[in-house]
Amino acid sequence: MAEILYKYCYDENDELICIDNINKENRHEHKYKCLCCGRDMIAKLSGGGARSKRSHFAHDKGYSCNSETYLHKLAKIRIREKFYAERELIVHLHEVSKCGENGRCKMFDEHLCYKEVNEIYNLCDYYDTCEEEKGINGVVADLLLTKSDKPNRDPVLIEVYVKHRCSEEKVSKGLKIFETKQIKSEHDIDDIINNGILTSCPSFSKIFDSGIGYNIKLSKRYDTNVSRFVLFPTWGSKIVPISCNKRGEVSDNTSLVELNINNQSLLKKGFDIWTIPSPKMIGLLYVAHRASQYKNCILCKYLTSDSNYQWFCPLYKKYGTPQSPRESYGMRCEYFQICALYRDISLEDLYECIELVKEKEGKWEM
After folding, report:
1. Is residue 310 packed enough to be buried (19+ CB in 10 Å), middle (13-18) or exposed (0-12)?
2. pLDDT grade, residue 205 (50/70/90)?
3. pTM of whole model > 0.85?
4. Which of 150, 183, 214 is the last residue of a domain?
5. How many domains is the chain partitioned into structurally?
């Protein structure tokens, strides 16, 4: 086993001591003990040469403890010391999660209905006790944080990851757990002490070189916008953004039809990403299915766009139609023909991606 260059050990009072605070003048003023095995240690100071080892503590008789055990123990001691000495133990929580309604909501869109959380907590604001190797619910926490005057507050476990990640047994208990990133050296421990514990969801921990937060409850209902199709008595229409949390409310009392639309749902019906109709087109197609006489210029096979992406009717020179017609002009245009691309989209297809909020009752008069 390679020799460990211990940066820390205990002094004669069982206080943590760092080799950086030892020099030739005071090196013999203390007694040194190993954090792991309790054996005597000596302070070895660097000679300063290019090939000289850095200053470190070493076992008096050449014995060497396991580096994994040393780093695990040192991390727990230093985190606990910081908790009490500075009343600060920062946790950075990075989470990317989908809305909890994704299995039930037609409007769920994986590109929109998620929340990226970046929150910072000082655990000392919520807890005042930090115990090492403390049992709870049949498992032993590396560090257990509790609130002495609020015994019913959910405790938090700090788990130190050196070689083994947090066990499934601990995670399955439903306890709130913050696990450190993998500690490979004393430098990693310094980083945690100086910058806090960075945690993320398991799928992102490798990307962010972070630890993992287990059983940390976040809001699962995200207030994003959905596309609302509104048809007016003039037979004109528009798309307006509606807050997800208000998607069941009517936006205009004068409207004939209001639909929430998620056109991405048509991918499930085998539509190609490049041929999926826009939310507005889906709304118009729905109206066309419900009222067979309904004609809208946007659905017409002749309508096209110019180099500036402005709609225009190419029949205006030959037949005198408006060059840039209002969409409702189609109701009185004798040349209207629905675009073949939309002709085969059934009402059943449309029901896959719409949520009906309002529809005029009775026969629709055109």
Report:
1. exposed
2. very low
3. no
4. 214
5. 3
